UniProtKB/TrEMBL annotation:
It comes from Paenibacillus tritici. Belongs to the NifX/NifY family. This is Nitrogen fixation protein NifX. Keywords: Nitrogen fixation. The gene is nifX. It comes from the Bacteria. InterPro entries: Di-Nase_FeMo-co_biosynth, DiNase_FeMo-co_biosyn_sf, NifX, NifX-like, NifX/NifY_domain.
Length: 136
């Protein structure tokens, strides 16, 4: 599964979803995690809140989880509608530490919230992947 981290330095979860200048995107499996890319968001002057949320959602549409330090209620609702689970962590949490915990959860018995996310991802994958037209 792909997992995004709201960051301004690529190594720590240290930004609010709506102000994050980039997302570090990792591919995470039971055997480990690898960086896919750092997705930098273009700076847009005078962009309203809805535009900021949309640009961030568009950049992580292929992700299953998004680790953030904070997210507003309307943004959280829009993220979950896109079948992306927001995960709040303390400011400055090292991404490597969060990845290690996530891999350990996948190797053991995942908590209910993660098991639910994994089931939804499996169901989407068995339906042909890009059938919803969001990628491509």
């Amino acid at each position: 599964m792909k997992v995004a981290f709201a960051t301004d330095d690529g190594s720590r979860v240290n930004t609010h979803f709506g102000q994050s200048p980039m997302f570090a995107v990792y591919d995470v499996t039971k055997s480990g995690a690898s960086l896919v890319e750092l997705r930098k968001l273009p700076a847009v002057l005078n962009q309203d809140e809805a535009g900021r949320i949309d640009s961030r959602l568009d950049s992580i549409t292929d992700c299953t989880l998004i680790f953030i330090m904070q997210i507003g209620a309307s943004a959280a609702a829009r993220v979950t509608r896109r079948k992306i689970m927001p995960v709040k962590v303390p400011l400055g949490s090292p991404i490597e530490e969060q990845l290690k915990r996530l891999v350990e959860m996948l190797q053991g018995k995942p908590p209910i919230w993660l098991a639910k996310v994994l089931r939804a991802e499996e169901n989407n994958g068995s339906e042909g992947g890009e059938a919803d037209g969001t990628r491509g």
